[in-house]
Design goal:
The chain is 45% helix and 14% strand. It contains 15 helices and ten strands. β2 and β3 form a beta hairpin. The N and C termini lie far apart (136 Å). InterPro entries: Insect_Ionotropic_Sensory_Rcpt (IPR052192).
Length: 416
Amino acid sequence: MHGAPIRTITDNLAPRSMVTEDPITGEKKWIGFVANLLNNFIEKVNATLAMQSELAEVEGTIFFVNISKWTANDLLDIGMSVDTTGEMTNFDTFTYPYLMCSYCFMVPLPDKIPYNEVYGVIIDPGVLALIFLIFCAFSVLLIHIQGRSLSLTSVLMNDMCLRGFLCLPFPFPRQCSRKLKLMCLLLCFASLMTTTMYGAYLKAFLYSPPPQPMMHSFSDLEGSQYKIAMIAEMDMLRFDNNRILPHVSNERVEIFKDYHEFVRLRESFNNNYVFPVTSVRWGTYDERQKLLFNPVFYYSDEICLSRDNILSFPIRRHLPYRNLFEEHILRQKEFGLLQHWIDHSFLDMLRLQLTPHTDLREPPVELAIDVDDLYWILGLYALALGICCCCFALEILGALNHWNRLKIYISKRFTN
């Protein structure tokens, strides 16, 4: 092209296009997985990059939707940005798809469950039912081997099984058969397995409590404490009439008119909001979270605005080198340069100081276990002690009644 200019403009959204200086000439240049492809094409065809900065002063804010509009109006040749084309029918002003990604929400990680709920979390109904069935089977077999009468009370209140499953000592019969010895051995093994399992669960959960359930739908977002941060240009992205947010009230959504303010809030990791983000941009956030004391957000593949977001370069109509540019896009992708640029996006942002490399937040405070965290388990323990005391009192009263009857019977015999 003999140095002919290619008019373009960038939205300076990292990591797509980031401004830096050439260490040799000192001139401005742009890097990123979008800017690099356009720079390589300009170098390939021997053209010149002509940045149309005056459009921002005349037309207003630089936003990728505005860049697509300026390109469609022949004010630009190729925009240094990408726009979604998933719902379009006319592709005269867009190239061959450059990138496909999802557009979902980054959601704050749920808090850990409080310590007073740990004892309830380790109790799984299915496991308890299985242990109860094993207990009943052992009890029935022991009663049958010992030749005792079978009843519901003897099965459920089998002293040997109760002590065995609680890993407590129980009196062993002096003279017993091999079957009874085998049953006692199996009972000891089962008690060892159950007590070890629940002991390990309890110690692990008390050391590091598991998180609360994650959100999986927009209905979960509606019932949560978080607000959904959206930008005012979402209607320009053909997501109008709130149809992308089913089961979400307008009070739950907070609209930001300034896109850069929205990006700054998202980059601050404010865990009071839920932010929409592309999977490519989330990759840099995820790498940044590895430098934090604890991760703050996770990328939800279930709460999405678009799971298949097709991104293309905006170009003007009747661009004479359109086919050459689209061939260049395919070749760069085939050689893996696109994935290479995306993988190194976070390192480029660190080098250009576009993202912090330290955690400016205070380290999390390690909370100790208080007595209040154990109130309900202590209450159950007190209730069990009360039941035991009542049973013991009933046994004593029953023994006294038998003793009184014996004394009355003896006195009658002697008087007669």
